Amino acid sequence: MSVHVSVRPREVRAPPEPYKVKVVEAIPDPSLEQREAALVRGGFNLFNLTSDEVHIDLLTDSGTSAMSDRQWSAMMVGDESYAGSRNFARFEATVQTLTGFPHVIPTHQGRAAENLLFSTLVRAGHIVPNNMHFDTTRTHVLRNGATPVNLVVRAAYDCDDPAPFKGNVDVDRLERLLDGEGRGKVPLVMVTLTNNTGGGQPVSLRNLEEVSTVCRAASVPLYLDMCRWAENAYFIRERERGQGSRSIREIGRSIFDLAEGATMSAKKDGLVNIGGFLVTRDAALADKLREALIVFEGFPTYGGLARRDLEAMAVGLEEATELPYLEHRIGQVRYLAALLDAEGIPFMRPPGGHGIYLDARRFLPHLGRKELPGQALVVEIYREGGVRTVEVGGIMFGDADGGTEISEPLELVRLAIPRRVYSASHLEFVAEVIAKVHRRRNEIRGMRMVHAPEHLRHFTARFEPLAPPAPAEGAVASARPRRAARSRGSRPA
Ligand SMILES: *Cc1c(COP(=O)(O)O)cnc(C)c1O
Q: Residue 85 C-alpha to ligand 1 middle, in angstroms?
């Protein structure tokens, strides 16, 4: 698949890679017919594609990082003892040094840490505030009978607002919730760094200080979803007064000092393909969490992982705090943003830490929300160039899973950039593919969901393109899927 790269504006330079290549992996190049067939077979849900059907994979930045030579060599010193492995000791010391939290509980990934924390602290009738819940976080809150509430600042919902910290919590609303309907019903407050659901936007240190003060006054513990904390710290260093000469690790300690604990998916800023942890200052809670850990994950010195994974995670957590790495990482996101900007393509601004979030409603203004513009765009980007992305909008966060949370007004398509994986020319290719889709945007039709599971439905839902408006054909094409959907008991959006 080759394209003529025309979108690169003269003044935009790609950030130089702070690494060189030692091992390569060939990438597949499916033909248009193969891509069309894959879409039909996969029910127009790109989670159902095989990797051989994908040319450039921007589905997620989670667990898709390239490990360094230091991480690979760490894998070779695995001490695979069930209990008391020396890899755990190193991992624990690294996390303690980076975060300052004394109790470190390893898990196989972030949602396992969420499961332990929420199943221990959250009960039916509880309310859990967050700046914005991530999909798995929200589902854990719902599964425990509680209500997730998003308290992010209003600017988060405006793709054009250039505010530097659009992941911030609306502190007044938090205070009112804790004083009012939430009194006695909020077991913890969470803040997600960076705000994945809202475009990977950062939270300021100042905002975290205010949230921490409000939580302390209400005697409610503050927990961080720290998946992308190093990227968040980079933005604080760049944008917040007085932070410019501090290291990522120093800023990190200032962040963590404000909280009672955190959940982590090391598949993000841990630069590993699998791993996570839960940290807390609360010794009594840590004992309870370890009991649950043994039931669900494994003994506290491995937590659902091979010990070599812990060693690689310790190295990755440190590498993710290095400035040359972060400059290139955030620089790649900005490079892609500049290429898209030159084509007048609408996306969430300013660009966040781990990817570009296209504004699907402005990209496809002729499609109403019910016509699933985000999914329609995901499908067209794949059809055009084999680039896999994901909808972050009405399908991922709609109210079909019984939540009391109202659907949010954002309809985004995330282009998540895996860490240390793709080069500048890959990003140029992606920009060209999206520009081509943009040029034929008026011909793009909407989609309909024909199978909708109850929870986390974006992973397994199935879709169909809406029929073209030709009257006779349209009547037949639209009657069939509706019947099929009803007989399966699903709820089309
Ligand atoms: C990825 C992610 C999680 C869940 O982590 P997994 O390792 O995928 O289970 C939780 N919160 C946020 C913000 C995430 O991005």
A: 26
Which amino acid residue places its CA nearest to atom 5 of ligand 1?
A: 110
CA of 200 to the centre of ligand 1 (A): 12
Confidence at residue 306, expressed as pLDDT on a 0 to 100 scale:
97
Please classify residue 290 by burial: count the beta carbons closer than 10 Å to its beta carbon, then call 0-12 exposed, 13-18 middle and 19+ buried: middle
Look up the pTM and report it: 0.91
What is the whole-number distance in angstroms between the Cα of residue 106 and the centre of ligand 1?
Answer: 15
Q: Which atom of ligand 1 is nearest to the CA of 60?
A: 1
| Torsion sign across C-alpha atoms 201, 204, 210, 211 | positive
Tokens of 31: 């033909």
Please list, in sequence order, all residues whose beta carbon lies within 8 angstroms of the beta carbon of residue 487, skipping any fewer than 6 positions away. Answer: none
For the chain, residues classed under CATH 3.90.1150.10 are: 32-61+323-465
Single-letter amino acid code for the residue at 249: R
pLDDT for position 478: 40
Q: Which atom of ligand 1 is nearest to the CA of 63?
A: 7
Task: Calculate the alpha carbon distances from 89 to 102, 290, 300, 357, 378 in Å.
Answer: 13, 16, 11, 39, 43
pLDDT value at residue 408 = 61
> What local confidence, expressed as pLDDT, does residue 469 receive?
60
> How far, in Å, CA of 289 to CA of 308, rounded?
23
Confidence band of 210 (pLDDT split at 50, 70, 90): very high
Q: Provide mean pLDDT across the span 147-167.
A: 96
Written out in words, the top-level CATH class of the domain with range 32-61+323-465 is: alpha beta
Q: Which CATH class is domain 69-319?
A: alpha beta
For tokens 């995670």, name the residue: 313
Which residue intervals of the chain bear CATH 3.40.640.10?
69-319
Q: Which residues contact 376 (CB under 8 A, 6 or more apart)?
A: 360, 364, 367, 444, 445, 446, 447, 465
Pairing between strand 447-451 and 462-465?
antiparallel
Ligand 1 atom nearest residue 265's Cα: 7
Contacts of 7 (CB under 8 A, 6+ apart): 339, 342, 343, 428, 431, 432, 435
Task: Specify the residue with its C-alpha closest to ligand 1, atom 8.
Answer: 110
Residues with CB under 6 A from ligand 1: 62, 109-111, 134, 136-137, 192, 196, 225, 227, 265, 267-268, 276
Q: Coil, strand or helix: which one is 190?
A: strand
